[in-house]
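Researcher: I've got a protein sequence and the SMILES for flavin mononucleotide. Could you write out the 3D structure of the bound complex as structure tokens? I'd like something to compare against our soaking experiments later this week.
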Amino acid sequence: MKVLALTILSNIMPKLEGYEFWEKTLGKPRFIVAPMVEQSELPWRILSRRHKAELCYTPMFHSSVFTKNPRYRKEALASCEEDSPLIVQFCGNNPEVFLEAAMLAQDHCDAIDLNLGCPQSIAKRGQYGAYLQDKWELISQIVSLAHEKLSVPITCKIRIFPSVEKTVRYAQMLEKAGCQLLTVHGRTRDMRGPVTGMADWSAIKAVKAAVKIPVFANGNIQSLQDVHRCMEETGVDGVMTAEGNLHNPALFEGTHPKVWDITDEYIDLVKTYPTPLSAVRAHLFKILHHSLMVHIDLRIDLARAKSIGDCEEICKTLRGRCEEDAAKPDAPTKPEDGKLPHWLCQPYFRPSPKEAEAKRAEKNRKRPLSMIIDDLNNEGLSKSQIKKRVRNPSVIFHRPVRQYEKCAKCPNPRGLKCVFSECRACCKHTAHKAVADCPGHHLLFATKKLKSDRWEAEQREKGLLTATTAAGDALNLDTEGSNAEQAGTTKQLDSG
Ligand SMILES: Cc1cc2nc3c(=O)[nH]c(=O)nc-3n(C[C@H](O)[C@H](O)[C@H](O)COP(=O)(O)O)c2cc1C
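Model: Sure. Here is the predicted complex with flavin mononucleotide in place.
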């Protein structure tokens, strides 16, 4: 229904641009939920919208996979009436492929966004996201082709450069190529993981002043106060949040709901709109972050949860415990040291890069990094092994190799039960030559010889054996013996 309406509208209405698009199509949104891989999926978007989010982005999808894989496409485009307005985000580095993916999605959304901000190593390998930052010509081609051919506007999400002046030129280049709305994440490509640090709103302010299209600010938004402060300081048209929204989806309402109310609401939505367990678990970890720091056993249970039912059970148990904590006479009723009681949705403040480094040093018993590296060098570790060991001191690289005893005649491992302390091939040779048995290798030359001698004697006593037949039969017996032996070996191999 929604798709049909969008298709008809796009056929009869001219494509809106810039502020007209932001105002009429999107409804002047100021509170925006960021694109988040595995996290801004349909149930989460609905939950956020029910708590005052005014515009949502899908997670980033890979344009090339999107064009080739119908199942990926179907899952990516899962939406409903309530899920509007919506922007679908893609990454990619080929203008035609990006356009093809965008064309397949344009009837399901209000705009298509180009991800120019992903700083992960997978983006580096695939040469997309923030790693296109240095290829302005290519970016310009992707945006201008999409602007020319799509029935919906093309928007972009960027990271800043260390230089404000270069960031401004970058934004102007995108505007010129046809970008109709720009989200600026106020961190550089290198600011990620433990060195994420604070976003620079002054760069966002400079971009906003230099372009004529609507601009959203992104970074450092953990509360409604931050939203207002950011809009005032930068003059942007809307504010986008990712981590703040994951920890408190009611951020735009300016409230701090009880964690169990939010988990119950989310799980109900997941039951209506099927969602991968990994995404559900990741959401629960974020919402319940502070409570799970207190009830650590449930944290472990949640990590091991195998179904949505398991997650629901864990949330129920946690609710019981949180309600007990809240009913205690000494339970806090207002923030202490700026922190709310753990059972209320609230932001998580990452340690600053300096604090993260100090924590790592503490873990390594406060020894300077150079000393640790020297020690690790002495262990004969490679550069990448040293890096891994610094990050995780308990990682083991050299697992002890099991030592095998060698065969008495060759470098192969000896059979552990061999009477000659040899490998099977050597043992067979030795035992045959000596007409001996090696039960360890199932070689029974002596036993067989004895049996054959006995049989020969019996036959001779009965007068049934002449010298020639004895020789012939003995020959047959030998063959039978070796066949039986071969069969034994095959059986051994099969069972092995
Ligand atoms: C779990 C997670 C997934 C993300 N996935 C995407 C993505 O698919 N596309 C994108 O442009 N940014 C993605 N980001 C980056 C956010 O959109 C946002 O730019 C960044 O987290 C900074 O905003 P914040 O300070 O509010 O967290 C992701 C962030 C998180 C935490």
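Model: The chain has 23 helices and ten strands. The pocket of flavin mononucleotide is lined by residues 34-37, 39, 59-60, 89, 115, 117-118, 157, 185, 218-221, 241-244 (CB under 6 Å).
Researcher: Great, I'll pass this along to the crystallography team.
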